[in-house]
Specification:
N Utilization Substance Protein A, Chain:P, domain 4; OB fold (Dihydrolipoamide Acetyltransferase, E2P); DNA polymerase, domain 1; 5-stranded mixed barrel; 4-stranded mixed β-sheet; flat
């Protein structure tokens, strides 16, 4: 009997590359299951607690039945529990495990069958672990494989060496058709170590795919002479990639495009004809945005770095249309590339908006500060847009419009009173965030109260928001705001 077990352990270990200890543990589990099936079949089969111990040298094994010592009031399962009053209190305490050696079953047909099932499961787990270990370091890299078969929602890709990956349909390029035996490139974006589902997850639609292909086709990028700063894609249609040169002698755009476009064409072919715009990255946001909106010519840019937004001004409607692009492609990709929310307008529209805003500020200063229109206009022309600004700037700021000290003091005093009144009124109207919102995964107390200040009090309120509505809150960006919103929307799908 012991010899049979040792033979099984050695054979499986050598053939499948699984450790001897893992197989011994699998066999012990199998023998426990087989023993229950033979001796404890019935109402107490599930309750009976057994332990099998295999001698690692001889293969001989012993079987033990176990009972946990519990308090009298907790004694509900006699098949695996002993009441403390039924055992020697000098020898046993609550929580102790009492063992009694029982008859061991033969390592026969049933035991061998159960052992086979357990060992197969262990082998699968070990193989998954080996594959995960082998590919963990390759996340973000380009993977080459062969289409093995199609599933309901995607494709199984054979990577060789018994490794398979999964390419979901939503991670494919639009209108892309794959056939069995076809060789493809894809980016490995995740390794799943859980026991269920696909283990290696591939994508051909993520921006990382474009970045990996550019590194492959353009030596200057792989040699870090040219640096990729960002990428944005509409898979299969259009993409933008921002590059920066670390050697002023090299034109980053020209190097990426290549002679007669040969380099960029190789990447485009791999991406099913996806049009790729190469953009020069700049640490000046305005310059960067202007480059990202090419081929349109920008007349002016007004940045708001606090809200990460920008007004983009164009001289003609043709340039505006070019900046927007077909179905909004160009501006959408430019916004994603730069991280700025872009508001496009013509010069006439911008001037009209400025005049409207100036009139609103003018009316506010006249009514709230009780001053003449000429003085209010002077404040607007100086760039004041709020009562707080008027209230708390240094007094010498007003020297530009030659106000005497007494008038400046009066002006700032009125501005402080008006600003304080607004703050108190706002405070009265602010609700506290709900407990559910405060306790939501990924939420902080500061963000929750900032949301409440905007009327977003419950999880359902958050679920109704768009990313742009809350991305400007301190502590959030577009990505984290999107994650919070999707978390809040989980109830929609459950």
């Amino acid at each position: 009997m012991g010899r049979e077990i040792l033979t099984v352990v050695e054979t499986v270990s050598n053939e499948k590359g699984v450790s001897r200890e893992a197989i011994f543990e699998a066999l012990e589990q199998a023998l426990v299951a087989a023993t229950k099936k033979k001796f404890y079949e019935g109402t107490t089969a599930e309750e009976a607690r057994l332990r099998v111990e295999i001698d690692r040298k001889t293969g001989d094994y012993r079987t033990f039945r176990q009972w946990e010592v519990v308090a009298d009031e907790d004694h509900e399962m006699p098949a695996c529990q002993d009441a403390i009053s039924d055992v020697d209190p000098a020898k046993w305490s609550i929580g102790d495990i009492r063992e009694l050696e029982v008859e061991s079953i033969e390592f026969g047909r049933i035991a061998a069958q159960i052992a086979k099932q357990v060992i197969v499961q262990k082998i699968r787990e070990a193989e998954r672990a080996l594959i995960a270990d082998a590919y963990e370091s390759k996340v973000g890299e380009l993977i080459y494989g062969e289409v093995k078969k199609q599933t309901k929602d995607g494709f199984i890709i054979d990577l060789g060496d018994n490794a398979e990956a999964y390419l979901a349909r939503e991670e494919m390029i639009a209108k892309e058709i794959l056939r069995p035996k076809q060789r493809i490139n894809a980016i490995l974006y995740s390794v799943n170590r859980e026991g269920r589902g696909a283990q290696l997850l591939l994508s051909r639609a993520k921006p990382e795919m474009l970045i990996a292909l550019m590194k492959k086709e353009i030596p200057e990028i792989s040699e870090e002479i040219i640096e990729i700063k960002a990428a944005a894609r509409q898979p299969g249609v259009r993409a933008k990639i921002a590059v920066k040169t670390n050697d002023h002698r090299i034109d980053p755009v020209g190097a990426c495009i290549g002679m007669r476009g040969t380099r960029i064409q190789a990447v485009q072919q791999e991406l099913n004809g996806e049009r790729i715009d190469v953009v020069v990255w700049s640490d000046d946001p305005a310059q960067y945005i202007a480059s990202a909106l090419e081929p349109a010519d920008v007349s002016g840019i007004v940045l708001d770095e606090d809200t990460h937004s920008a007004d983009i001004i164009f001289a003609t409607s043709d340039q505006l249309a070019r900046a927007i692009g077909s179905q909004g492609q160009n501006v959408r990709l430019a916004s994603e590339l730069t991280g700025y929310k872009l508001d496009m307008m013509l010069e006439d529209e911008y001037r009209a908006r400025q005049q409207n805003e100036a009139q609103q500020y003018l009316d506010m200063f006249v009514s709230r500060l009780d001053i003449e229109e000429d003085l209010a206009m002077a404040l607007v022309e100086m760039g004041f847009t709020s009562l707080e600004e008027v209230a708390y700037v240094p007094a010498e700021t007003f020297d530009e419009i030659e106000l005497d000290a007494e008038l400046v003091e009066l002006l700032q005093s009125r501005a402080k009173e008006a600003a304080l009144a607004d703050a108190l009124k706002q405070q009265e109207n602010i609700q506290d965030p709900s407990e559910e919102l405060l306790n939501m995964e990924g939420m902080t107390r500061e963000i929750a109260y900032s949301l409440a200040a905007r009327g977003v009090v419950t999880v359902d309120d958050l679920a109704d928001q768009a990313t742009d509505d809350i991305a400007d809150i301190e502590g959030l960006d577009a990505a984290s705001a999107g994650q919070l919103i999707m978390k809040a929307r989980e109830s929609w799908f459950n």
